[in-house]
């Protein structure tokens, strides 16, 4: 749990942290369920066969300009 070291959290603060943690897990499950349903529908409707590739792309840090290099 987040908080200041050595300071006891109130029960309402603890409940709020637990609720926020559960919501993050819920969001991840919703995304995973949507991906599964979409890929399943693609496979069922695909006239080219039964192969659909799925990859987890990580874009963090890939879309920003690199500030250390300047081209003249």
Question: What does this protein structure show overall?
Answer:
With 72 residues, the chain is mainly alpha-helical. It has one domain. Helices cover 49% and strands 0% of the residues. It is built from 1 helix and no strands. It has one helix at residues 11-45. It is elongated and about 60 Å long. The relative contact order is 0.07. The model has no long low-confidence stretch (mean pLDDT 78).
What attributes characterize this protein structure?
mainly alpha
User: Which term fits the overall shape?
Assistant: elongated
Order of helices and strands: H
Which structural class do you get from the secondary structure elements? mainly alpha
* Overall strand count: 0
The tally of structural domains comes to: 1
Low-confidence stretches: none
Helix fraction? Answer: 40-55%
* DSSP summary: helix tally: 1
Summarize the structure.
The protein is mainly alpha-helical and 72 residues long. It has one domain (9-72). Helices cover 49% and strands 0% of the residues.
């Amino acid at each position: 749990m987040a908080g200041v070291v050595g300071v006891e959290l109130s029960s309402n603060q603890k409940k709020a942290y637990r609720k926020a943690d559960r919501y993050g897990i819920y969001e991840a499950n919703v995304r995973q369920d949507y991906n599964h349903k979409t890929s399943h529908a693609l496979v069922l409707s695909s006239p080219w066969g039964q192969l659909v590739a799925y990859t987890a792309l990580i874009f963090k840090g890939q879309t920003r300009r690199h500030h250390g290099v300047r081209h003249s």
